[in-house]
């Protein structure tokens, strides 16, 4: 069902989240990011270092609960678990509690990620639909469509995702309930 290699938090050496807020599935949105920093990684060893670097930045410096993204995809073609399918993320204000945020490690302003990295994103989304974590009629956006002032996910990657089936040019205004936990 899920045709990609998943790297668990334990496998990449994540610290536990400081706190978690559960998210209802299936979600209607998928939001694509690039990390910008850290730069692209091609070996699993490098990608693990990138994951740890981001968790340090998000959790220790930014004082968030955990690494912000739901999932992160490396240039090694593997999918790294961030907050996962059912925990509210910290990647796109107004959408955090109803989207899966997927970040591609690297700076994708002028270059396209390698095909194995893009393939892993497609496989992850397909898997999310099959597991009923993502709605089959989900809409996909680049981060800059829902947040003023960011160039994320980079022009070249944005051009790429613009051709994907579920890409939408019309992100709706999203009402954010204060709490989604039961
Ligand atoms: Zn972003």
Automatic annotation (TrEMBL):
Coiled coil: none annotated. Signal peptide: none annotated. InterPro entries: Amidase/PGRP_sf (IPR036505), Amidase_domain (IPR002502), Peptidoglycan_recognition (IPR017331), PGRP (IPR015510), PGRP_domain_met/bac (IPR006619). SMART domains: Ami_2, PGRP. It holds the Pfam family Amidase_2. Keywords: Disulfide bond, Immunity, Innate immunity, Signal. Residues 4-147 form the Peptidoglycan recognition protein family domain. CDD domains: PGRP. GO terms for molecular function: N-acetylmuramoyl-L-alanine amidase activity; peptidoglycan binding; zinc ion binding. One of its GO terms (biological process) is innate immune response. SUPFAM superfamilies: N-acetylmuramoyl-L-alanine amidase-like. Residues 15-154 form the N-acetylmuramoyl-L-alanine amidase domain. Disulfide bonds join 41-47. Peptidoglycan-recognition protein probably involved in innate immunity by binding to peptidoglycans (PGN) of bacteria and activating the prophenoloxidase (proPO) cascade immune response. Binds to 1,3-beta-D-glucan and PGN. Belongs to the N-acetylmuramoyl-L-alanine amidase 2 family. This is Peptidoglycan-recognition protein.
């Amino acid at each position: 069902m899920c045709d990609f290699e998943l790297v668990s938090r334990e496998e990449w050496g994540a610290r536990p989240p400081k706190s978690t807020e559960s998210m209802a599935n299936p979600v209607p949105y998928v939001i694509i990011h690039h990390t910008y920093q850290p730069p692209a990684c091609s070996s699993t060893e490098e990608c693990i270092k990138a994951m740890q670097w981001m968790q340090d930045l998000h959790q220790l410096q930014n004082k968030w609960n955990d690494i912000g993204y739901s999932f992160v995809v490396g240039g090694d073609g593997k999918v790294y678990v961030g907050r996962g399918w059912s925990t509210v993320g910290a990647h796109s204000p107004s959408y955090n509690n109803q989207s899966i945020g997927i970040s591609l490690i690297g700076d994708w302003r002028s270059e396209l990620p390698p095909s194995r990295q893009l393939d892993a994103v497609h496989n992850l989304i397909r898997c999310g639909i099959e597991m009923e974590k993502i709605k089959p009629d989900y809409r996909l956006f680049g981060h800059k469509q829902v947040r003023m002032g960011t160039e994320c996910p980079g022009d070249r990657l944005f051009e790429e995702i613009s051709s994907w089936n579920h890409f939408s040019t019309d992100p709706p205004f999203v009402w954010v309930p204060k709490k989604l936990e039961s």
